[in-house]
């Protein structure tokens, strides 16, 4: 039976761990990420006869590799390429939390935006139009209260549809200045064929513009491993 691997991402204090515990119950274990002191939490659950493994990524505010937590979260999404990534947002601090969500949308198409603590938001008079937000972001948006198990069924049903390919996403991607967009296009043309479409070329181009040399070395390393596994022929990128 196929096992769907799901990443759980979010800022600290969004209730992400509560959702992880709600979905996996006692079927979970913890350890350290390889070579890191960062805690690795993983659990499993079943829904409608389908098996899932849920990986609780470290709570982070960004994925720019400014810390070990950010590096672990980023590397899992880009290199392990889970079947779906659930990004947990705090309904009472939506604007601040959306920064991480937009970064994840740059990296993968299979994303669900999970707005948690919706009960707390309602107490504060905050109303969130999830349908409009879904249209703007181009991915499913589900409102939940993990603590009260409200909306969990809808989240699981949406996840099932996403991993089966029954939901087609068109993730929102940031548009930058004319100069940056031209640079992105130029770099993407240089990257064509290099990673065999394994990694999102626009995201890689942005990281190159950021000067993230450590990530580029990792991409090259993983690309070589992929070539060995698939007996591919290396293709070099010429400046």
From TrEMBL:
Q: Which Pfam families match?
A: FeoB_Cyto, FeoB_N
Q: Which UniProt keywords apply?
A: GTP-binding, Nucleotide-binding
Where do transmembrane segments lie in this chain? Answer: none
Quote the InterPro entries the UniProt record gives: FeoB_Cyto, FeoB_GTPase, G_FEOB_dom, GTP-bd, P-loop_NTPase, Small_GTP-bd
The segment(s) forming the FeoB-type G domain are 3-165
- Report the protein name in the record: FeoB small GTPase domain-containing protein
């Amino acid at each position: 039976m196929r096992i769907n691997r799901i990443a759980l991402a979010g800022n600290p204090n969004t209730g992400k761990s509560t959702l992880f515990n709600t979905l996996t119950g006692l079927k979970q274990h913890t350890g350290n990420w390889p070579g890191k002191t960062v805690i690795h939490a993983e659990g499993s659950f079943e829904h409608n006869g389908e098996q899932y493994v849920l990986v609780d990524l470290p709570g982070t505010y960004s994925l720019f590799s400014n810390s070990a937590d950010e590096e672990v979260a980023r590397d899992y999404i880009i290199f392990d390429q889970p079947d779906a990534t659930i990004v947990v947002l705090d309904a009472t601090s939506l604007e601040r939390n959306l920064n991480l969500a937009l970064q994840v949308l740059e990296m993968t198409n299979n994303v669900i935006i999970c707005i948690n603590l919706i009960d707390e938001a309602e107490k504060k008079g905050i109303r969130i139009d999830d349908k409009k937000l879904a249209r703007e972001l181009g991915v499913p948006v589900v409102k939940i209260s993990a603590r009260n198990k409200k909306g969990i069924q809808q989240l699981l049903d949406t996840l099932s549809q996403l991993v089966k390919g029954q939901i087609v996403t068109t993730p929102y991607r940031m548009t930058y200045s004319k100069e940056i967009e031209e640079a992105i296009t130029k770099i993407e043309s240089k990257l064509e064929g290099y990673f065999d479409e394994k990694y999102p070329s626009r995201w890689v181009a942005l990281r190159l513009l950021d000067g993230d040399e450590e990530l580029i070395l990792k991409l090259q390393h993983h690309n070589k491993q992929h070539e060995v596994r698939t007996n591919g022929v290396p293709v070099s990128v010429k400046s």
